[in-house]
Structure formats: C-alpha cells, structure tokens
Specification:
The complex is a heterodimer of chains A (263) and B (96). Chain A is an alpha/beta fold. Chain A contains twelve helices and eight strands. In chain A, helix 1 crosses helix 11 (224-236) and helix 5 (99-110) packs parallel to helix 6. The N and C termini of chain B lie far apart (72 Å). The chains are: A alpha/beta (263), B alpha+beta (96).
Chain lengths: 263, 96
C-alpha cells in the first residue's frame, strides 16, 4: 500500500525542501520505492538540493498538460535504484495546475511507488492547495521560533479543514546549547503549543549547508542531522525509535571546562 | 569564546519562555479568528452598554482573550476577559 505524504510548513525557509530530500532519500536507502514531487511551480529547488538539476527534461506541468508521459519526466537518482524525482516547472506559475489534476497525478503514481513525497511551497494559497490535494498524511516542518510556530499552527488548522487528519510535526534547527540556557523553546514547548505528535527533531547542523552545497542529501551519514533524518524514515516505516538525545550527557568535568572557556 | 560577566548572568531573561508565552496568547487570538480590531469593536460596544448603568473608566477598560483552565476530559476553551474600572454606580437605588 502506498502512502502519500505532503511536507509543508506555512513559513518559508524552515527546511521543507531539505526535509523532503533527506526523508525521500532515507526511505529509498531503507529499500522503499520513492518518488519526490516538487510542487513549488515557479520556484523549483528540490532538484538542486538533490543534485539532479542537470538532468531535467520534462516537469510536473508537462505531465499534467500531457506534453509527455510520466515516465519521461521522472528523473532516476543514480545513487539509489528506487528513488525518483518529478521536478517542478520553473517558467510557469501556481495556477498552471489545479488540485484535481494533482490528485489524479498522485493517484497514477500510487501503483508504482511505496511512498510519494510532496514538497509543498511556502504560503497557504494555490500552491499549498495543490500540494495537499492528494495527500494521505502531512509533515509540518517548523523551527523553534515564534513566527514559524505561528504559521505551523495555521497550517495544522488548514490541514484539518481539508480532512488530512494524520499530521505529524518535525521540529527543525534546534540548538541544544540555546535550549539549555533557556534562550530557545524546547521540543516539549513546541509540541505543547501545537498539540500534534512529533515524528522528528533535527538539530541545527553545519553539515546541512555543506550537503546542500554538494547536492548530496546527508541522511544516514555520521552527523546528528543525518541520524535524525534516518530516524524519521524508520518511524515512517512503523519502527519504534525514541527521539534522539540531542543533548549529550555532560559530566561535571566537561561542564567545568566549558565554564572556564566561557569565563 | 564570548565573555559573560556577572551582570549579564544575573539580568539575563529566558527568552525561550518569553517566546512560549507570547505564542500562547497569539495563537488563541489566531485560532478564534478574533483580531485586535474586533476586540476594539467589542470594547466600544461594551462601553456603550455598561455606560447606561454606571460610569466607567473607558481608558482603563481592558479586553482580552485568554484560555480557561482545562476541565476534566475537555479541551481548554478560549475565554473573553474584560476588566472594567467603575467610577460611579448610577443605579442609585442600592446605594443611597
């Protein structure tokens, strides 16, 4: 049975595309057949984060308009045999596609894939409506900031109104050092406010910038964020994975030396 | 490493808590769809209605939406809270 997941946030720049790329790649790594769909028509980015920008021939709008067959537009990721990308169109706008067309496109892909991941554009307008149209469940990405959480709350309400009841939260860019000194909301604070289950917590990590520079998703790699993304994928597959201990246990000695360094 | 002096440590606010408190209030108004403009209209109408019966301090009147404490097994409901300072009671009958 295939599952269609939309990755959304409301606010821009909180990490939807990075999350889509890493969760999609991670699921493929774990042996699932995955297609990633960039639904941000006019501002496509998932192709560059995936490092597949030079291989685009046809795009989502071409498929919807019947200019090509689905198979022609899907880009096969050479790193994993079962990972595909359906890129968005760069020279068109959100009104080129309707929610009905998106629903049909997703339905057609269900036969061939285990997971269909939709990378949603920022905002709550047409692009958002298109992206959520065919989704079974949603991941709401937020950062521990007032503006991102406010937008996430609005998105959760809109998802409910559109009868997407299975909604999980991904708290992105957590800085444990700041949480520890009380200058950043903790994962518990965020879930307390938003009231939906957390499927993942990803630390703020320089490695993400490096991976995006290279066009190589870092899921599964030996970094905190790489492991956090892999944990999300395992939870999607139904495995019980506890939230990663982002805060490494600090003994008295490290705390003491840390204090000396600061002073 | 940044230098943190005693003054900074003693006066430092927990901005994470500030963020959480601000969000809690913000989301109540967002969720109920009650904008500050609507609150202002409610406030004006309240002043008009109450002024028929007593003299109130319109400037000191405060209206806000907060959240009620959760009752057993139910969701927390929003509550319209109004604080209205009274100057003089006009209903002379009770206070001669």
């Amino acid at each position: 049975m295939s599952e269609v997941i939309v990755i959304t946030s409301g606010k821009g720049g909180v990490g939807k595309t990075t999350t889509s790329a890493n969760v999609g790649t991670g699921l493929a790594m774990l042996g699932e057949k995955v297609v990633l769909i960039d639904t941000d028509i006019g501002l496509r980015n998932l192709d560059v984060v995936m490092g597949l920008e030079n291989r685009i021939v046809y795009n989502l709008v071409d498929v919807v308009e019947g200019n090509c067959r689905m198979k022609q537009a899907l880009i096969k990721d050479k790193r994993y045999p079962d990972l595909f990308l359906l890129p968005s169109a760069q020279t068109r706008d959100k009104s080129s596609v309707t929610p009905g067309q998106m629903r049909k496109l997703v339905e057609d892909l269900r036969e061939d894939f285990d997971y269909i991941l939709l990378d949603c554009p920022a905002g709550i307008e047409q692009g958002f409506k298109n992206a959520i149209a065919g989704a079974d469940r949603a991941f709401v990405v937020t950062t521990p900031e007032v503006s991102a959480i406010r937008d996430a709350d609005r998105i959760i309400g809109l998802l409910e109104a559109n009868e997407i009841t299975k909604t999980d939260l991904i708290v992105n860019r957590i800085r444990m050092d700041m949480v520890r000194r009380g200058d950043m909301m903790s994962i518990e604070d965020v879930t307390d406010i938003l009231g939906i289950p957390v499927i993942g917590a990803v630390p703020d990590d320089e490695e993400i910038v490096i991976s995006t520079n290279q066009g190589e998703p870092l899921v599964g790699m030996n970094s905190f964020s790489g492991q956090a993304y892999l944990n999300i994928c395992r939870r999607i597959l139904g495995q019980e994975v506890p939230l990663m201990e982002l805060e490494r246990s600090r003994g008295f000695f490290t705390r003491f030396t840390g204090f000396l360094k600061r002073a | 490493m940044s230098k943190i002096n005693l003054f900074e440590i003693l006066t430092k606010r927990n901005s994470g808590d500030i963020a959480k408190k601000r969000l809690q209030f913000l989301l109540i108004t967002d969720r109920t769809g009650c904008t500050p403009e609507i609150l202002e209209l409610i406030k004006d109408d309240m002043i008009k209605a109450i002024s028929k019966y007593m003299e109130i301090d319109a400037k000191g009147l405060e209206v806000k939406i907060t959240q009620m404490e959760a009752l057993e097994g139910s969701d927390r409901l929003p509550v319209l809270y109004a604080s209205i300072p009274i100057r003089t009671l006009l209903t002379k009958g009770t206070y001669l």
